[in-house]
């Protein structure tokens, strides 16, 4: 799949290089482009960023209208790896196996002067919990979790990057288990509950200590699914409805200029 989107600051590749998995192969071509002579072919024409991701589109009938739902996901090349061996956040603020997903809803409308459409979209990211943590005894079906006491700089850098890329505030949804017979994920739950409030207020002596606009919500998805079944998703919908006024979403009409709702 070809890359697209905002510039990533790597030569002339017009994409977010965070998602360009073949960037190491493109760098020699980009370097050659900076040294090319007049009249020579532009190496950029041969540069096609490759994305590790997913795309799907479905049509849904809503009364007399058809709604087109589109899902586009792309996985970060930074700090990627296999389950249990890649966890948490690295020093540069990249979460393990981070995936950015955009959900797009398009409604086609008939009009006297031709077809029109309305579109709404939102972006969410999913990744390992942005703390320093790892597993112990990974041969066990439920390996223990070790939370390491490290500075908050990388966690702050992670959320700071999201704010730069997508604007603020950023909604943070904590889906970790809140009840366990043997505490495993609970260690992460309590640590994240300590960290996020610290990031939303200035801390003296901390690197880049400006308060971050984060909307923090906890929801024990696994235990609620066990208790409520499909109704657990209804609770998630209520959380979304509460968060949307704060974070907004992209809205576009074919006969208007694009803008944020």
UniProtKB/TrEMBL annotation:
Q: Which PROSITE patterns match?
A: SAC
Q: Which GO molecular function annotation, any one, does this entry have?
A: phosphatidylinositol-3,5-bisphosphate 5-phosphatase activity
Q: Which compartments is it annotated to reside in?
A: Endomembrane system
Nuclease among keywords: no
Span of domain SAC = 1-182
Q: Which superkingdom heads the taxonomic lineage of this protein's source?
A: Eukaryota
InterPro entries from the xrefs?
Fig4-like, SAC_dom
Q: Would the keyword Signal be found if you checked this record's keyword annotation?
A: no
Q: What is its main location?
A: membrane
GO CC term, one of those recorded: endomembrane system
Give TM segment ranges: none
* GO terms of biological process kind: phosphatidylinositol dephosphorylation
Record keywords, A-Z: Hydrolase, Membrane
Q: What is this protein called?
A: SAC domain-containing protein
Which species is this UniProt entry from?
Heterosigma akashiwo
């Amino acid at each position: 799949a070809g890359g697209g989107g905002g510039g990533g600051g790597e030569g002339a590749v017009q994409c977010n290089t965070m998602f360009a998995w073949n960037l190491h192969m493109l760098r020699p071509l980009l370097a050659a482009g900076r040294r090319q002579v007049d009249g020579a072919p532009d190496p950029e024409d041969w540069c096609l960023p490759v994305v590790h991701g997913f795309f799907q589109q479905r049509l849904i009938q809503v009364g007399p209208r058809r709604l087109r739902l589109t899902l586009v996901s792309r996985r970060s090349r930074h700090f990627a790896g296999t389950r249990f061996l890649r966890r948490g956040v690295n020093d540069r603020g990249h979460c393990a196996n981070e995936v950015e997903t955009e959900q797009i809803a398009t409604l086609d409308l008939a009009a006297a002067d031709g077809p029109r459409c309305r579109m709404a979209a939102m972006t969410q990211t999913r990744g390992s919990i942005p703390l320093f943590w790892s597993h112990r005894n990974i041969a066990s079906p439920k390996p223990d979790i070790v939370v390491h006491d490290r500075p908050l700089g990388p966690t702050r850098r992670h959320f700071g990057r999201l704010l730069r890329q997508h604007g603020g505030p950023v909604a943070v949804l904590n889906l970790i288990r809140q009840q366990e017979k043997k505490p495993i994920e609970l260690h992460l739950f309590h640590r994240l509950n300590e960290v996020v409030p610290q990031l939303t207020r200035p801390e003296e002596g901390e690197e880049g200590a400006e308060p971050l606009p984060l909307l923090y919500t906890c929801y024990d998805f696994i235990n609620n699914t066990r208790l409520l079944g499909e109704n657990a998703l209804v609770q998630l919908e209520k959380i979304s409805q509460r968060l949307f006024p704060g974070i907004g979403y992209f809205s576009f009409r074919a006969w208007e200029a694009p803008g944020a709702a």
